[in-house]
Amino acid sequence: MPLTISDAVIWQETGEGISLYHTETGDFHTLNDTGSKIWMLVASDGERDPIVAKLSDEFARNNAAIGRLIHLDVMEFLGSMIERGLIEEHLP
């Protein structure tokens, strides 16, 4: 299912990562390097599988165990962002 950044989120890249402000809840978040990479991939790709594939190519380097860990971590991060209303998942 396609992913998009919520229209209620204002975000920008900073020296510490990506800063997020949810205009409906008033919540602020700052993403670390890994979260920022995932966020940027959501902004550009909007699909779970390509996000996992790009991060696995960059970090796992054909190591299946690390690839599985990346998959789990990305799914957990995306689930958390969806739950908080920062990222939206749409039916195709």
How would you sum up this structure, described in words?
- The chain contains 3 helices and 5 strands; from the N terminus they run E-E-E-E-H-H-H-E.
- It has one domain.
- The strands form 2 sheets. It has a 3-stranded antiparallel β-sheet.
- Strand 3 and strand 4 (28-31) form a beta hairpin.
- The chain has helices at residues 33-44, 48-59, 64-83; strands at 3-5, 9-14, 17-22, 28-31, 87-89.
- The chain has 92 residues and is α+β, with helices and mostly antiparallel strands.
- Pfam families: PqqD.
Mean pLDDT: 94
How far do the termini sit from each other? Answer: 6 Å
Largest sheet: 3 strands, antiparallel
Number of helices: 3
Q: Could you name the ranges where pLDDT drops below 50 across 5 or more consecutive residues?
A: none
| Order of the strands making up the biggest sheet | 2-3-4
When the domains are counted, the total is 1
Q: Bin the helical content.
A: 40-55%
Tally of strands: 5
Helices and strands, in order, run as EEEEHHHE
The coarse silhouette is globular
Q: Per DSSP, what share of the residues sits in E-state strands of 2 or more residues?
A: 15-25%
Radius of gyration: 13 Å
What structural category arises from helix and sheet content? alpha+beta
Pfam family, one: PqqD
Protein name: PqqD family protein
InterPro entries: PQQD (IPR008792), PqqD_sf (IPR041881)
Organism: Nonomuraea typhae
